[in-house]
Amino acid sequence: MVTAGGSPSLCRLLRCVLVSRDAERLATFYEQALGCRRVARALRAGAAFTAATGVAGGALSITLELGAQRIELLQFALPGRPYPAGTLASDLLFQHCAVVVRDMREAFHRLSAVGGWTAISRHGPQRLPVSSGGVTAFKFRDPEGHPLELLAFPAAGLPAHWRQAPHSDPCLGIDHTAISVADGAASVAFYQALGLRVAGASTNAGAEQASLDGLPGPQVEVTALAAEQATPHLELLCYRRTQPGAPADVGPSDIAATRLLWQARSIPGTRSRAGDPQALADPDGHRLLIVAAG
Questions:
Q1: Are 193 and 110 found together in one domain?
Q2: How many whole angstroms separate alpha carbon 208 and alpha carbon 128?
Q3: CB proximity list for 186: less than 8 A, separation 6 or greater
Q4: 73 occurs within a structural domain
């Protein structure tokens, strides 16, 4: 395992890795609801995989692509526990992937036609005030409980790389993954030590944020952190008016044990073969996997 003191220099977020009880069925949901396409299917096992994940027995891996970004579904041969019921957006367990959509009405209509998901947001998609970015967003859970977000930028504020994306589908790609943290400053320092830079910050509150998060009166400090390749990036969500739940006891094969696979220029202090992922956890227990570039 890598320690933060080893200081690998992260240069790219390769993909989000979601643990699944039924990867084939969940992949079908992502295809139908978001327009993802399958690009790889493999059985993964061996000492390096067990060391990186903390789970013996191997796993079925299905890799999905959405635009230029990827999500990997891992179905372990020795399954863990379901996603904890009653988890709130402010709880430290919370981690979502934000999917950029060209047209929120069209994307929400397609999602609504697919069964199995549950809403986090109240009253449908929410248009946030300009002080919170002016985006329109909707948060929900996939059939196994993983949080997701549909995200539409205002027309004048759509970043250039999304304007260049193909427009044949309402979902363009993955903008970021967001995690809830207890101490924003401590988490920023942790990720800066790994080579990420602060790319933006805001404090979000108000009725629209409450409806988006499904929480009463939230005030959330949002900090965007980017690697050299800035998309997708990482966002830290530090809730101030809503007491976060204690870090959950999440086992490595549990559905909530989401991992972020990062590429680093080098990984000091390890003797693993090139390409073998090394495990790391942030101050709130969010799991990282790091592979060396090259």
A1: yes
A2: 6
A3: 283
A4: yes
Q: How confident is the model at residue 293 (pLDDT cuts 50, 70, 90)?
A: confident
Q: In the predicted model, what is the mean pLDDT of residues 201-229?
A: 95
How many Cβ atoms from other residues are within 10 Å of residue 129's Cβ?
Answer: 14
**171-180 vs 126-127, strand pairing mode:** unpaired
| DSSP 8-state symbol, 245 | P
CB 98 within 8 A of CB 13: no
Give the integer Cα–Cα distance in Å for 156 and 146. Answer: 31
The first and second tokens of residue 162, run together, are 């999304």
Looking at the fold, whether 231 and 261 belong to one and the same domain comes out as no
- Smallest CA-to-CA distance from 68 within 166, 155, 138, 196 is with 166
Residue 214: what are its φ and ψ, rounded to 5°?
65, 35
- Give the model confidence (pLDDT) of 246-256 as tens digits: 556 899 999 99
Contact, 282 vs 187, CB < 8 A? Answer: yes
Whether the bond into 232 is cis, omega within 30 of 0: yes
Angle at which helices 104-112 and 23-34 cross, to 10°: 140
Residue 147 belongs to a domain with what CATH number?
3.10.180.10
> Average pLDDT, whole number, for the chain?
91
Section 134-156 average pLDDT: 95
Please check the confidence at residue 225 and state whether its pLDDT lies above 50. yes
DSSP state of 41: E
What confidence category does residue 269 fall into, taking pLDDT thresholds of 50, 70 and 90?
A: low
- Ranges of H-type helices in 71-216: 104-112, 160-163, 184-193, 207-213
Residue linked to tokens 């080893």: 6
